[in-house]
Amino acid sequence: MTTLDAGASAAPPTPAAPTPAEPTPAPHVRAGSVLRLHPLTRTTQGDRVVVGRADTGRFVAIPAVGAQALDLLEAGLTVEAVEAAVTPAGSTEPVDVLAFARSLVRLGFVAEVDDERAGAGASPAPTTRGLVVAPRARARWLFSRWGAAFAGLCAAAVVAMLVVVPDVRPDALDVFFLGTPARSLAALTVLTYVLAGLHELAHVMAAAALGVPARLRITRRLYFLTFETNLTGLWALPPRRRVGPLVAGMAFDAVVLAVVLALRVAGVGPDALLAALALVEVSAIVVQFFVFLRSDVYAVMTAVLGCTHLQRTTRLLLRRTVRRLTPDERAALAASPPRDLAVARWYRYVHVAGMAVAAWFFVVLFVPSTWHLLSWMRDSLVSAGPTTWAFYEALVLGVLLLSPRALTAVVALREVVDRRRAARRPPASSAALRVGPSH
Asked: Are both 86 and 135 inside the same structural domain?
């Protein structure tokens, strides 16, 4: 899965610049200060402009007046001159450009303030976990129009074979392709890990072809283990150019599935293994349409619809339905882009329906199957004894079968620890422009 979101200060998870052990104090910004900004990208997204540093992968969404103020600051005007220029005639209160400028410093967008260097310590963003990957662009033709056309043909071939040849349609029992159910499921778990890793590698390579680095990490969506590629750097590109890297994982799945089904139709290769692989890939593609899990399709949808904070806005609308919002939540909802509000009004029903299905799956299937696996592993180990081969086979198979659940639990625990640490930190700065008295 991929993430692509423009948060108030940074997209969570966002590849942030590393913080030095002894950060340089941020210079003080005054009304008469002149700022020298780092090279920033600007991309229109709905009624907002996404601004950021491609080298650190940090982006924020600001209104049009913010982009205007940014241009004037970049041109060398003082903060007070910019404030006078962007404040509408006849306005009773000036636009608070001073607070905006100070936020830019804290976000790490400012190189110097009045010839005083703004060090890396001016950006106090929490460190985001994950492996930063910035490979050189290779095999760019794979991610060209010809590559997209080939993947599209593979997807069409998959649909055709599933419709015309009923024998190659995936069946739930295809998972049992080895001598015992335990061996089959354990092997399928390993195959799923490998294919999921290659799916994410397709995202990374497609982004690298456009000069965008990525961050890989293991995370979760609800109680599902997820391999995630953070492509926040795509905000530096227009929406149309973001789509390729976002769908690259599904394109890989379509190509693999087309090859597997073609081999089955031709009667070539181990049919039981190919049937299991087909089931894995069909499931992988279907899961991407679960947009409530912020899947690849969700990322494409938000890019095409011009949204920047859709998930946050949706949750705030739902919370307002069931309880009163806190002052901070009300302020966040009021600051949501109109485009996000318009989409969230219908997307919230999709979100609720998806969460209901996920809750049903958790109670009816996930918990019972986990308990069954634990019971099977306990009984197998006790009955076999540590001096037998069956004992160690059951141990290895049990670890493999339970590894997705165990890793999900570890990730959830890590998130709890991170939230507690974040609660003790000062709130992250916002690059929003406010109307009010300067100070």
From this structure: no
